[in-house]
Amino acid sequence: MASQSRKGGVFLPERRAAKAEPNILTKLTQSPIVSRGKRSACDAVSVTKKLIRSTGKAAWIAGTTFLILVVPLIIEMDREQQLNDLELQQASLLGAPPALP
């Protein structure tokens, strides 16, 4: 039993010595083409993350600017239109000729 490792109540066999000749999978993963592809993929991921982050910041700036500048303008224009409609309705009820816009 001294040759077997014990972990969590289960006896595990000792690890075998590594083979001298690597298999096809290790040859492929260690090739320069694969390493260049991995490097390119990592670069693409980092560029994509930076692009998403900057796009999010731009969207935040555009959204807050819209809320601060454009929404009050839209509300004021709507109030003005309602006031004009009310004046036109009152003028028609009083019998005055409607004014041309």
UniProtKB/TrEMBL annotation:
Gene Ontology biological process: intracellular protein transport
Listed transmembrane segments: 58-75
Keywords noted in UniProt: Membrane, Mitochondrion, Mitochondrion outer membrane, Protein transport, Receptor, Translocation, Transmembrane, Transmembrane helix, Transport
Entry's Gene Ontology cellular component terms: mitochondrial outer membrane
Domain of life (superkingdom): Eukaryota
Principal localisation: mitochondrion
Claim: Transmembrane is one of the keywords in the record: yes
Localization, UniProt: Mitochondrion outer membrane
One of the Pfam families matching this protein, by short name: Tom22
InterPro entries according to UniProt: Tom22 (IPR005683), Tom22_pln (IPR017411)
Membrane protein topology class: Single-pass membrane protein
Assigned protein family: Belongs to the Tom22 family.
Protein name: Uncharacterized protein
Species name: Cephalotus follicularis (Albany pitcher plant)
